[in-house]
Automatic annotation (TrEMBL):
<keyword id="KW-0472">Membrane</keyword>
<feature type="transmembrane region" description="Helical">
    <location>
        <begin position="41"/>
        <end position="68"/>
    </location>
</feature>
<feature type="transmembrane region" description="Helical">
    <location>
        <begin position="99"/>
        <end position="117"/>
    </location>
</feature>
<dbReference type="Pfam" id="PF06127">
    <property type="entry name" value="Mpo1-like"/>
</dbReference>
<keyword id="KW-0812">Transmembrane</keyword>
<protein>
    <submittedName>
        <fullName>Mpo1-like protein</fullName>
    </submittedName>
</protein>
<keyword id="KW-1133">Transmembrane helix</keyword>
<dbReference type="InterPro" id="IPR009305">
    <property type="entry name" value="Mpo1-like"/>
</dbReference>
Length: 148
């Protein structure tokens, strides 16, 4: 179970989060599915959000970046760049909410297929903060991290 401080944020370090997340992401096929689907889910969430409210999505993105900053400055910078890339790509795509929602659903189906192959349930069933750790795990692997 999560150790929570008085701000409501976990006291876990990035390494602890990634180690725990990696437990249910050992199978190579599941890892590859996650490396594709996690960023796809992230961008689709931004796409759906931007379709509904630009300001709300930007504020929520800033709060997500604060979570990452608490864990690691390099992760904060990597995710900040990723969010900027997502927003840039989205500005080039004429997709509305329904298309982004479809992408979101397909990517989640992929995630669950990966976990079926792995034989372990998704980490977020234990702690919803793992929904933010998935993108950190992918970013960590792209930065040459050992927990991926």
């Amino acid at each position: 179970m999560s150790r929570i401080n008085r701000t409501g944020m976990s006291k876990r370090t990035l390494e602890q989060w990634l180690t725990e997340y990696s437990v249910s992401h050992q199978n190579l096929v599941n890892k590859k599915i996650h490396w594709l689907c996690v960023p796809t889910i992230f961008v689709s969430l931004l796409g759906m959000g931007m379709s509904l409210s630009v300001w709300f999505t930007l504020v929520l993105s800033a709060l997500v970046l604060l979570f990452y900053m608490q864990l690691s400055t390099p992760l904060f910078m990597a995710m900040g760049v990723f969010i900027l890339i997502c927003l840039s790509v989205m500005s080039l795509l004429p997709w509305g909410f329904k298309v982004w929602a479809g992408v979101f659903i397909v990517a989640w189906i992929g995630q669950f297929i990966g976990h079926k192959i792995e034989g372990k349930k998704p980490s977020f069933f234990e702690d919803l903060q793992f929904l933010l750790i998935g993108p950190a795990w992918v970013a960590n692997s792209l930065m040459g991290g050992k927990n991926s």
